[in-house]
């Protein structure tokens, strides 16, 4: 695979060049290549089904990217799982993916798992494998072409996460576009904000590795402590910034977040949620040497498929920023509810067709058939996003279903409801997003409680939240809980979300 060959070449020519740094650790290209070979060789010795996925658990450490490459060099796709994912959800991921091996780069509560059905290589053992001095015997068996390279689990409306399969070809198509169409081909420092279990992290990880760049990872300690974050940023020498708009907005609250703090910053890449004119404007004011790009795309089409540079002129003439034009090998068209292509200017569902569209959800034929199809020989994906085309540019107009983005995190309201519904204290529930300035600020759960013995509502809320924290990552747990005696219904008998939404907005 071309991407792996590029990394190999950089490791040979510049073994000491840094591939990765975070607060406190670093990894050179030479170490990345050799350690991932060691791991791949070890994986090949374990009798696991060929092509069976391997879970890589941890946070923003260098062992994560060593493990990713170790997996794909041994012929197995990896499933990145961030530490923020609770055990119950990891169990669901194991069940759905049939993974047999977990590589844990951080301490892991392994006594929750049946050692007959899953093998866990814990962080100390992993470290021993990676730094072992014996000769490496590695059968060349890299994942290639239509083999899965990684599988990223996203929120699913059925109540369980679903695994988006991204092949070597999907990823190569994305990386080729990034390198050819964005000013990022020099050996630069790339900010990596998103944890590896979100596909936004792929936007900097593989472009950076394939051009010999250095990934500068933001850890959760940094996100949780702005003083540490900005101090680390000051010494980061970042050239390319990749994050959600929400993260940049948070940084803008710090008055010293400017070109003076990051004198080398030349490019902002945003994706995953609406980039407002206000955020873009403030960034252009504070970073006069930088360009801003707004990218659009779902995990199912490998990170992003369209982009546009956002300039001061564009901000002056637009209330809502466009999401640009599609990459050269991909088509994006707008269809009505019968799948008929709509003319320019008319709003409909956005369909993406091209070589970076996933083959579907792992082990979920029904779900795959609902959203993926073949169009003129190319894989196509029904995004569930509404949009229109005007003067050759694409515009995003929100979702057609209950998928939402809260502070950059993708989730299905139905999955949250499904899990709240499992609480012993809950009879029925509906979750609604609460908006501020056109963006979702937080989620409120309207709950019809089951019989309980709590005196106060806050006690009931904390009991439900405690149960939920075992099943859902913290970012999916609604901030507010409101208790009602029954859910309002629409005339056709569905829970009346609009009415509940009006209630929270009034
Ligand atoms: P994810 O799979 O987490 O990348 O989320 C994909 C979804 O994020 C898309 O289907 C859109 O709803 C939303 N999204 C991605 N990029 C943008 C953008 N530039 N503007 C608005 N929404 C976006």
Average pLDDT rating: 94
Distinct ligand kinds = adenosine monophosphate
Low-confidence stretches: none
Largest β sheet strand count, sense and barrel closure:
9 strands, mixed
The total tally of domains equals 3
How many helices? The count is: 16
Distance between the termini: 55 Å
Question: What is the count of β-strands?
Answer: 25
CATH architecture of the largest domain: 3-Layer(aba) Sandwich
CATH topology grouping of the largest domain: Rossmann fold
Helix content: 25-40%
Shape: globular
Strand order of the largest sheet: 2-1-10-9-11-12-13-14-15
CATH class of the largest domain: Alpha Beta
Characterize the structure shown.
With 506 residues, this protein is an alpha/beta fold. It has three domains: 3-310, ANL, N-terminal domain (Rossmann fold, 3-Layer(aba) Sandwich), CATH 3.40.50.12780; 320-398, Luciferase, Domain 3 (Luciferase, domain 3, Roll); 407-505, GMP Synthetase, Chain A, domain 3 (2-Layer Sandwich). The protein is built from 16 helices and 25 strands. The strands form six sheets. A nine-stranded mixed sheet has the order 2-1-10-9-11-12-13-14-15, with helices on both faces. Strands 16, 17, 18, 19 and 20 form a five-stranded antiparallel sheet that branches. It has a four-stranded parallel sheet with strand order 4-3-5-6. Helix 1 (2-13) crosses helix 7 (200-211), helix 2 packs across helix 3 (62-73) and helix 2 (29-45) packs across helix 5 (123-131). The model has no long low-confidence stretch (mean pLDDT 94). Bound molecules: adenosine monophosphate (AMP).
